[in-house]
């Protein structure tokens, strides 16, 4: 028998039994990626001042550290732009909505570049802890890029009509 109400059987998703393992795994991966990205910002509070005062003169290949940090900052710009935008502002192209669009694109590009640099860093002479940390942050950024791309958030022009 068909329902004649507003929510007919065609409009309601069928419930599907799933185990708890996959949702919990996704949540753990998401939290782990976000924590890795936060450590990148924390780590920058150590190495940027040290570089500025000249205590890292012999350190080369700072791009392996800087590119993942820039990717994380682009993701932060995306989150802040979304959080600070009003529903009305989301309907037109302005600074916030253009920031939403461009920051996700730049984040994706920097995430790929960060992984490439982290992989190439194994040929460089550099601090092992910095290399491993950069690799973990880069992988976290790439995973977040994949997740955002899956949900259609990379390059999102929220002001554009369907």
Provide structural commentary:
The chain is an all-alpha fold and 162 residues long. It has one domain. Helix content is 64%, strand content 0%. It is built from four helices and no strands. Helix 1 (21-52) packs across helix 4 and helix 2 (63-84) runs parallel beside helix 4. The protein starts with 20 loop residues before the first helix and ends in a 12-residue tail after the last helix.
Task: For the structure shown, list the relevant keywords.
4 helices; mainly alpha; single chain; 162 residues
* Helix and strand composition category: mainly alpha
Estimated share of beta-strand residues: under 5%
Number of helices: 4
Overall tally of domains:
1
Mean pLDDT: 87
In short:
The protein is 64% helix and 0% strand. With 162 residues, it is mainly α.
SSE arrangement:
Blueprint: H1 21-52, H2 63-84, H3 95-120, H4 128-150
Helix pairs in contact: 1-2, 1-4, 2-3, 2-4, 3-4
